[in-house]
What we know:
Blueprint: H1 9-13, E1 18-25, E2 28-35, E3 42-46, H2 60-64, E4 68-72, H3 89-103, E5 108-113, H4 115-126, E6 131-137, H5 146-161, H6 165-173, H7 184-194, H8 199-206, H9 212-218, H10 222-226, E7 232-237, H11 245-254, E8 258-263, H12 270-273, H13 275-286
Parallel strand pairs: 3-4, 3-5, 5-6, 6-7, 7-8
Antiparallel strand pairs: 1-2, 2-4
Helix pairs in contact: 3-4, 5-6, 5-8, 6-7
Amino acid sequence: MTKDPYTSIWSDLVATEFSQGFADAGGYRTRYLHAGDTSKPPLILLHGITGHAEAYVRNLASHAAHFSVWAIDLIGHGYSEKPSHCLEIPHYVDHVLRFMDAIGIERAAFSGESLGGWTAARLAIDHPHKVNRVVLNTMGGTMANPKVMERLYTLSMEAAKDPTWERVRARLEWLMADPTMVSDDLIRTRQAIFEQTDWLQACENNMALQNMEIRKRNLISDGELRSMSVPALVLWTTKDPSGPVDEGRRIASLIPNGRFAVMDECGHWPQYEDSETFDRIQLDFLLDR
């Protein structure tokens, strides 16, 4: 059997001109990866729950050819500020708006995965003047499946309490249709985040949306989806662990300017698992071609 070639975050980025930095987003220290000329239209990439900006390392170069691309660590995540309270969708929306102010942009395109899609959808609904176009990638926020919520909570909190190699691997494998996509380098990148002294409390605060009562008050209703005025692409996968393809199709059907696309043989991180296909689908939509 041929062994898969070794991959790393650095090998994904080595040919990409990019920068890493921290911005003061209205009091929130916010880590970002940036690629592309700032004279180009801005694009903000938002990761999922317990995730981080590295979720998009395989997409920066292709998108930087057309956009000024910002992949950020949301508050409570990665190496950004970790508030001492439970985090709900309005907190993430507020953080993104503060980040936009910090980098001096009035309006942007957005692509969000899972929690990031939930946040991006809420932005598009409540602040349409801030959003040009939005990609909702296996988005959260329309379902409350107790089994999925419990599984995600358990995997995340076990890794937070005891960030061993195997526990962090198990959390990452939940994201992938093909578990061999979880490289040693990706495990170590996330393990280092989970080893931060403030991570256990931060993870508990992040997991607030897995509490049924809290989740329900943050859900996006069908009526709100029907009110979304900005063009939206709903992207789903055939092996997404959070919900079936039909849910993605249903979401897209409710959005007046909604489109729908499906990626085969991918899980919750299609932008990483099949970056070539993801980039083509997303850029065709963002560039309206």
